[in-house]
Amino acid sequence: MTTYEQIMMQELRIWQRKMMRKPGFFNRLSKSMQDKINNLIPEKVHQVVTVVIKQMIRGVLFGAKWTTRDKKTLLTLGESDDVVEQKIKIYRTTAAAEGALTGAGGLWLGLADFPLLIAIKIKLLFEIAAIYGFSVNDYKERVYILYIFQLAFSSAKHRRNVFLEMINWDERSKSLPEDINQFEWRPFQQEYRDYIDLAKMAQLIPVIGAPVGAVVNYRLIRKLGYTAKMAYHMRWAEEQGLV
């Protein structure tokens, strides 16, 4: 391995331990409170939200693959990381601008931020997958993208379960169903909403909505980009027989 790859392997091991960490006291308390709130919401509302997010994600997933080109020239890990970091910076700026604009527009534009931000996030993940040499035209690679999405925006308990499903992905993906409708959409949407609800609520407040929207979106994209980077480093390490 090169010196850069050795450093990245050390960072990867630290990240993997973090993903495997069990929920702490405050995390469990926060999750318990959120679950109680969710139990108060009528089941029909949960079903409607699940269907809406499912169709929204599906539309972005199957639309983005036609606007994301597969990488033709194989790059080293370091070269790929450099390109990925540039992409993350671009998408962070875009998401921050979008958050500021919708946050300044009051309640209705603030609500529009939800689908717009999802589209930005999924498109970034498609770009990153292509940079690391994975074909986004492959259905199973698009499922992996959904796992990365969950890994970035879930409670510690759910995150740990998702991470375990991602280990040795090339082998695990062979048993995936071919129909994306069989994907577990309910926990996907609920974990995502629970994760961002508190952060995004302030975006709907007049005056402070714009700066809050910009900062929150910036941080969400930064976290998603780093999570994706580590997830594909794990794939790289597995291919090299290092984990």
UniProtKB/TrEMBL annotation:
Q: What InterPro entries has UniProt attached to this entry? A: EcsC
Source species, please?
A: Niastella yeongjuensis
Domain of life assignment: Bacteria
Q: What is the designated name of this protein? A: ABC transporter-associated protein EcsC
